[in-house]
């Protein structure tokens, strides 16, 4: 096994050229085997095996710096830097991350997890290199999907001013998570399929190579003036027109081609973009056929590609999908917006039924929010479906374009709370805090699947900005006997007793129900209140609860700082209500990757931790 010879960085350079093809196949087999057990990002990693090998052969790590945009495609990079043993614990608590992590290896020069950041980060690294008088190479790898994000263009605009080497590798597989959309996708497709340019270029170079002595000099001269040649046969030449040298397109599975083009890129004293065309899912037939399904794969059967664990119950995303589909029939002003995630956010059914009212704007959350504001300003009813951690990217647009104008935009905030294996860059644990700070914004969360349905219908008819947050995974189907109508700013009393009041928000109602059972078994009287709204607070309920209980316990799957519990304490303090309040929330820290149940225990918002905390607090009163 050639992989047995890869135990630390740069070991790949000890292999013979003839062994590279075999190594690539071994890496693909290894990835399929390991990810079929652990789950993870498969299709994107299968697509960049040769590209990663070429980078490691062309550059010297860790002296040279590679920044991986998003970073979910860095598995081969981890193998080639001596971390293949870590794949047995990939994305598990305490194990190896599925993304680059500086604390894991000095070959990971920058932590990543969100899209469209690598050019900005790489440009910073390159400028620091120049200032410090160093001479190593800096390479930013970015996908064509990430080029739908505006931040990438801001960085390209600045990179064009570089007067020293900075290499941008465009990994072009015509996919983000789902198939790419928009003008950049069409532009790159034109370059990919421009046989006129590729054929002319290769034909000229091959012919000149056969001329003794002068052939190489002539090729060098053509390269110096090839911008004119490209302008003639390839329309636009966007990157060259910006001042960035363009090399490509290159077959991202032809190692020899990539090694040559990287040597050429290293010689340039300016920013250069190497356009590499790859196939997502390469080498594993199910992933080639269904790259979106294998973007973030659950454990699967290698032979069939089918998931090992069939989904038994509907997820919150499924419920959202069903309700959006039904509401689309009832209201022809309802429109849906996603930032490159029609499948992940559950909008695929809406898109299929109402294609003229569905908008995939690419990986461009800022644009998605302001676009929604424009739709709302003209009387449409936009629903922006987005993951909690990605909505952070549009904070200014929520304030400036939606809430200042008090426009009726619905934010369907999926993956709110702890999401697990993707780790700190993907945990949705800040949205209650950052959304609650914004005037005119309302924030609510459902206790179960029926309440999500009711809340979404309520939100669509609401005439102001409103956000509904709901967690990843299976939708809770308990407490179905409690289904009071949604009333703006009002909570729902599930059990009305005395001594202790559990006031739970969203996903934590399920946990609170178990905590209440434990308290009852210990002999305590305990009320259970479904908060429903984090903003506005149900102040009438809080006044009553404070007067009838010795201890109020708030429960939320959000950071404590700025969250629901702190808002409750502030209200009680301002109104001189001196009942003790115990906040059960996530500490003011980033939460690493791992199984969600394990993470809840680690941050002490699981049933047992909360029960112990309450009893200790109550006994001390």
Question: What features would you describe in this structure?
Answer:
The protein is an alpha/beta fold. It is built from 24 helices and 17 strands. Helix 8 runs antiparallel to helix 9, helix 13 packs parallel to helix 19 and helix 20 crosses helix 24. The radius of gyration is 27 Å and the shape is elongated. 48% of the residues are buried.
Quick check: average pLDDT?
A: 91
The best one-word shape is: elongated
The overall strand count is: 17
Largest sheet: 7 strands, mixed
Stretches with pLDDT under 50, minimum 5 residues: 225-236
What proportion of the residues form beta strands (DSSP E)? 15-25%
Q: By helix and strand content, what is the structural category?
A: alpha/beta
| End-to-end gap | 65 Å
| Strand order in space, largest sheet | 7-6-8-9-11-10-15
Count of individual helical segments: 24
* Helical fraction: 40-55%
Rg, rounded, reads 27 Å
């Amino acid at each position: 096994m050639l992989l047995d010879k890869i135990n630390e960085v740069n070991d790949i350079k000890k292999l013979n050229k003839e062994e590279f093809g075999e190594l690539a196949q071994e890496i693909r087999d290894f990835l399929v085997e390991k990810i079929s057990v652990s789950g993870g990002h498969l299709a994107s990693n299968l697509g960049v095996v040769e590209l990663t090998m070429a980078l490691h052969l062309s550059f010297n790590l860790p002296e040279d710096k590679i920044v991986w945009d998003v970073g979910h495609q860095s598995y081969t990079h981890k193998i080639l830097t001596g971390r293949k043993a870590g794949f047995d614990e990939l994305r598990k608590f305490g194990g190896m991350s599925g993304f680059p992590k500086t604390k894991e290896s000095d070959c990971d020069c920058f932590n990543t997890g969100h899209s469209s950041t690598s050019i900005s980060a790489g440009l910073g690294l390159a400028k620091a290199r120049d200032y410090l008088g160093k001479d190593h190479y800096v390479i930013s790898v970015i996908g064509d999907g990430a080029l739908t994000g505006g931040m990438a263009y801001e960085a390209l605009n600045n990179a064009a001013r570089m007067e020293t080497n900075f290499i941008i590798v465009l990994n072009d597989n015509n996919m983000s998570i789902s198939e790419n959309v928009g003008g950049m996708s069409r532009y790159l497709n034109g370059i990919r399929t421009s046989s006129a340019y590729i054929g002319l270029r290769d034909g000229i170079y091959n012919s000149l190579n056969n001329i003794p002595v002068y052939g190489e000099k002539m090729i060098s001269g053509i390269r110096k003036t090839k911008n004119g040649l490209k302008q003639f046969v390839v329309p636009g030449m966007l990157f060259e027109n910006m001042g960035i040298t363009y090399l490509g397109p290159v077959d991202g599975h032809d190692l020899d081609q990539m090694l040559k083009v990287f040597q050429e890129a290293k010689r340039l004293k300016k920013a250069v973009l190497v356009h590499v065309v790859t196939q997502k899912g390469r080498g594993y037939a199910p992933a080639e056929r269904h790259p979106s399904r294998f973007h973030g794969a659950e454990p699967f059967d290698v032979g069939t590609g089918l998931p090992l664990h069939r989904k038994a119950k509907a997820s919150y995303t499924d419920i959202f999908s069903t309700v959006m589909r039904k509401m689309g029939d009832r209201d022809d002003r309802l429109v849906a917006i996603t930032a490159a995630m029609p499948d992940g956010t559950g909008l695929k059914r809406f898109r299929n039924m109402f294609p003229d009212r569905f908008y995939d704007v690419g990986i461009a959350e800022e644009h998605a929010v302001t676009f929604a504001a424009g739709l709302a300003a003209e009387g449409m009813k936009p629903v922006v479906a987005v993951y909690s951690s990605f909505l952070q990217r549009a904070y200014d647009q929520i304030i400036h374009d939606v809430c200042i104008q008090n426009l009726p935009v619905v934010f369907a905030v999926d993956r709110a709370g702890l999401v697990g294996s993707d780790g700190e860059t993907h945990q949705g644990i800040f949205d209650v805090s950052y959304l609650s700070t914004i005037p005119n914004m309302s924030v609510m969360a459902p206790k179960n699947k029926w309440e999500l349905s009711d809340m979404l219908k309520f939100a669509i008819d609401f005439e102001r900005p409103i956000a509904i947050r709901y967690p990843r995974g299976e939708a809770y189907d308990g407490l179905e006997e409690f289904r009071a109508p949604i009333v703006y700013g009002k909570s729902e009393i599930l059990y009305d007793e005395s001594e202790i009041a559990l006031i739970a928000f969203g996903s934590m109602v399920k946990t609170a129900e178990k905590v209440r059972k434990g308290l009852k078994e210990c002999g305590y009287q305990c009320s259970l209140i479904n908060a429903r709204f984090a903003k506005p607070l149900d102040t009438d309920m809080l006044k009553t609860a404070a007067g009838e209980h010795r201890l109020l316990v708030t429960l939320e799957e959000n950071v404590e700082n700025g969250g629901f519990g702190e808002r409750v304490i502030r209200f009680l303090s301002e109104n001189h209500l001196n009942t003790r309040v115990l906040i059960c929330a996530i500490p003011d820290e980033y939460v690493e990757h791992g199984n969600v149940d394990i993470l809840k225990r680690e941050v002490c918002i699981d049933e047992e931790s909360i029960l112990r905390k309450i009893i200790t607090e109550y006994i001390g009163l």
